[in-house]
Amino acid sequence: DPEQLRALTTEQMQQLAEEIRREIIEKVSVKGGHLAPNLGVVELTMALHYVFDTPKDLLVWDIGHQAYVHKLLTGRRDRFHTIRQFGGLSGYLRREESPYDVFGASHASTSISAALGLAAARDLQGEQRKVVAIIGDGALTGGMALEAINNAGSLKKNLIVVLNDNNKSISDNVGAINHYLGKLRQLQTSRSYQRLREMA
Q1: Which of 51, 102, 136, 154 is the most buried (most CB within 10 A)?
Q2: Is the pLDDT of residue 168 over 70?
Q3: Distance between CA atoms of 58 and 2, rounded to whole angstroms?
């Protein structure tokens, strides 16, 4: 449960991250599923649930392929062994399964658009909550994501977009956005940048 997560020390969080990785590897090696995307978002998912007041604040995941950590942290650990089985937990996000699953995503490039809709609904209802879209660098190159960014800028809604810039996708990332993200990655790993960070 995210409330318990927020009470952990840094050392306890590191231990929990290792436990989550072991559990995912154990279950996926038996049942099948999406191993790499989930192992790659352990700390990111923990950080999001630590920082944001979920389920009041809404996390909108771009793809369901990386939902296992989210499921483990949101009260479904005892049923995790049933994932991807008939009558068990879904391998993706399902609104019917948990109040933490606010959008039933299964393919890329949809999170920003969905989050924008949720932010607009929040404002119409006068609610005080944060809406967060989590999108990968590969999905960011999709037309729907770009249209949503354009629309979000025009509507000026209070919306947070978290970019999981891991340089990974089902197929190779291509195009100008991938090129510019690559340049940013190079800059962040350069000696000059590291020296500036140390000075700050």
Answers
A1: 136
A2: no
A3: 13
Q: Examine the pLDDT at 119 and tell me if it is beyond 70.
A: yes
Check if the beta carbon of residue 148 is closer than 8 Å to that of residue 116: yes
pLDDT digits (tens, 9 = 90+) for 57-75: 999 999 878 899 999 999 9
Task: Give the chain's domains with CATH numbers.
Answer: 2-167 (3.40.50.970)
Beta strands in the chain (DSSP E): 58-61, 131-136, 160-164
- Give me the residue label for tokens 């995307």: 37
Task: Classify each residue of 85-101 as buried b or exposed e, where b means 16 or more C-beta atoms within 10 Å of its C-beta.
Answer: eeeebbbbbbeebbebb
Q: How many CB atoms lie within 10 A of CB 185?
A: 13
pTM for the whole structure: 0.86
